[in-house]
Amino acid sequence: MKNILILIMTVISLPAAAFSFWPGGAAPCNTTLQACIDGSPVGEYIEIRTNSTINENIFANKAVSLVAANGYKPKFSVGNNVQVYANGAYTVRVKGLTLLGGSMQVVGAGAPHSIYVTHNDVTHTNANVASIRVYNTSYDDIHFDVSYNRVHTNFLNSPSDEFGAISVYKTIGNGTATGRVYGNTVTAVGIESRGIMLNERVGGGIDMNVIGNEIYGATQGGVYVLSEHNNSDIHAKIGSNAFYRHDDFYFPSGVHLEALDGDIEAEIVNNSMIESRYGVDIIEVPGAMVDAYVYNNLVAYGITGFYFPAAATVTHDYNLVYDVTSNTGYTPGPNALSINPQIVGLQNARLRPGSPAIDSAQSIALLALGGSPFIDADGGIRMKKKGSGAAQLDIGAYESGDVFYTHVNKGTGSYISTLDHPDLNGDSGADEIHITSNWSHNGAVGPYNNDNEGIYYTGGKWRVFNEGLVDIEPNAAFNVAKFAAVSNTFEHEVTAAGNNYTNINKSGLDGQSQRILQVTQHWTGTYNDHPPGVWYGFGKWNISNLDLVNIPNGANYNVYFQEPSKSAWEHVASAANIVSNRTTLDNPIINGVPCAQVHVTQSVSQGVYNAHPVGVYYSGGYWRVYNQDLAAMPVDAAFHVVVSPEQVAACSDLIFKDGFD
């Protein structure tokens, strides 16, 4: 059975298109990258295996994918751009590239297909065009996914055209550009700067979800939606985005809707606009139409909160507007608030404990975002339980409620260590607690904990223990998380012995192969001294003993799951990121942050069973996952990783960085 599963999962993990790599590949990929592209067939998946700076200006006049190989960070030198003209029914990916001073453009043409522009880092100065520009020049529908990019654009004061740092638009009056702009970090500088722009200038449709982005600057609009043609039809779902000032001058404008002709329909839900020139600004000229649904937004410390012209159709309530100079066309709804939101800071709009915005949003308003991920600006789940009541929704871009801390063992001579935290104590039914061994807490070194850890509850407190009854060394540290999204946490008990894996049956997981999971052994009477991992097959998620020993009846697990986000992802070990018994994580949220609290669960997505206890540690600017018994880390070992940007900001002492108190 194991070999069958490995074969299935390995086949699933391979790119569907033809595959080649550069540099060092077979001809035509044995000279320049441009020659590799020119000589490759349409639909080729080109993996870039270098950390060196590439001094080439790339133009692909065909549908090819350009993807940084796992463990590599290819960089393009200043003045060089990457352009792909994706013509035909091929999936195209541009992923993991760094542009030190240039722009990225991917064009969808021909038959319906999908384009993914993800995990890129683009810096663009004196910009006259978008840093990342995707557009549809097809009569058919093109799906765009622009996610997890980091973009810094310094615009010219008088650009020749209207673009955002990230721009999505159409050039043909038929077909629809669909998809999402998700989990990006965008800085747009200049008096004409825009953050994320949706522009319909020739007719046809744009239907995009703009979710979970953090935008700095963008004085003309953090999310700028522009309709310019009488046959234009734009539908924008704009949720859980945070808008901030850049430096001392470039104050943001949150959401700007401008209908010069045609129609704009927008759902603007659960965003935070801090120090904005406008929170939401609507322009509708005669003959055009704007229909906006504005709920659960937090607008504070700005100039104009809401600008709603009389001609526009605006439905609104449950917004918190505080300390703005004026509003136009806005009369607070019956559930609106106008009191101090008690945010952490002007560059950190997360809510302090006791904030009136906590649990004060209308939960059903999230449904207006349709199929968008219900993910906040940190990449965590919306709607969390903050006490003994039901899970509810906060106003603004960030959801409060999760607990992250590090427990350090102070005892000796025992395989048990008692957790002591007010949010855990007395909560015997908590299925949302998870642990990960941390070898480098607060810069300390070690000790190892070479055993399979679990947790259990007794006497009013939770405890960490070693399933193999091995003593936990003094100063051994464990990252502890209590995830408050109770709809996504549960206990799973094995009720039928005889297999080394157990099927999970759970709505929200079944049929969802891309979910990110955390699994912690939760002792309720049955020991299972084996390393656990997860895998997906035949429509179900499963938990396995990675050493393939049968799981005993009564073994019990805490399980957490969520959609992938910028703070929840799968890491795969490769020859380029492995040293000895460890593999290096690379995520800008935690890079350079030794106080980050990283949580990992092993995955068998690539067909590799890493049958060893694991932990995390920090060194040289990066976090790493390591085998506790010092066994070599195998290529294609995989890990589901979850971190908290809120915890990272707090431990990095960013709370009063802007002088806000």
Automatic annotation (TrEMBL):
Residues 407-481, 539-643 form the DUF7452 domain. Keywords: Signal. Residues 1-18 form the signal peptide. It comes from the Bacteria. It holds the Pfam family DUF7452. NCBIfam families: choice_anch_Q. This is DUF7452 domain-containing protein. It comes from Marinicella pacifica.
